[in-house]
Specification:
Radius of gyration: 24 Å
Low-confidence stretches: 16-28
Oligomer: single chain
Mean pLDDT: 89
Number of strands: 0
CATH topology of the largest domain: Four Helix Bundle (Hemerythrin (Met), subunit A)
Helix content: over 70%
Shape: elongated
Strand content: under 5%
């Protein structure tokens, strides 16, 4: 009997471990700003844009049609990970424009107008790059902050997991502080003043959340998470 109990208990521990591992993997997927279907399309857009297009290799451009259609199709119905849910509307708009570019490429490739084919290749590359920019984080530090905030805002707060919010608060402070120290790249320099102001407000909101967490103020923690999320959205909006 004791041996049977030990075996059952061991199986339970194994199943629990597998369940926790699967949950951790799901969370990891939801916090990565990545769409695998879009990444896969790079396999075909790279030779088009970097070889066939500049070399005006019209035969190659026409030969790529089947691969373009095969790799583009999954993008039309691709699902964004949870961390990108705020970009859903812009993503769908971009997918519509991308599909139109694919259709135009098909039409141009079936015709004899080489200039139209070059124009279609340029448009396809442009609409693909637009989708990439839609999901790619503007700054590494902002993305790292959002990865933590996403779990706090969409898991811990709704489930009232106050201990986990308390544990995450110092990490949010560290990552928010890192954002305030970022120097924007040259192409974004004009947004520096607005960015610095929004970054400072985000850090202040995160420190308020940390204070509420330290005081075990549950209502303050929940409202603090909401405020941090709003300040994060305001920061991100600067780059739209």
């Amino acid at each position: 009997m004791t041996k049977r109990i030990t075996i059952v208990f061991s199986l339970f521990i194994c199943l629990l471990g597998l369940s926790l591992f699967a949950k951790a993997q799901d969370t990891l997927k939801e916090t990565k700003s990545e769409v695998p279907e879009l990444t896969a399309f790079h396999e075909i857009i790279y030779p088009i844009w970097h070889t066939a297009y500049p070399e005006k290799d019209y035969a190659a451009l026409r030969k790529y049609v089947a691969d373009i259609n095969k790799l583009a199709a999954p993008i039309y119905n691709a699902k964004l990970p949870g961390i990108l849910r705020d970009k859903e509307a812009k993503w769908k708009e971009g997918v519509g424009l991308f599909k139109k570019a694919v259709d135009e490429y098909n039409a141009a490739a079936s015709g004899k107008d080489d200039q139209a084919l070059l124009k279609a290749a340029e448009a396809l590359h442009s609409k693909y790059e637009a989708l990439v920019r839609t999901i790619n984080p503007i700054l590494k530090e902002v993305d790292e902050f959002h990865q933590v905030l996403y779990v706090v805002n969409h898991q811990y707060a709704p489930n009232k997991e106050y201990d986990k919010i308390r544990e995450a608060a110092p990490e949010l402070v560290t990552k928010a502080d890192a954002i305030t120290k970022v120097a924007l790249p040259k192409r974004l320099e004009a947004k520096t003043e607005a960015f610095q102001k929004a970054a400072a407000e985000l850090l202040a909101a995160v420190k308020e959340l940390e204070a509420a967490s330290g005081a075990h103020d549950h209502d303050g923690m929940l409202s603090g998470v909401d405020k941090v999320h709003l300040k994060y959205q305001a920061l991100e909006k600067i780059f739209e």
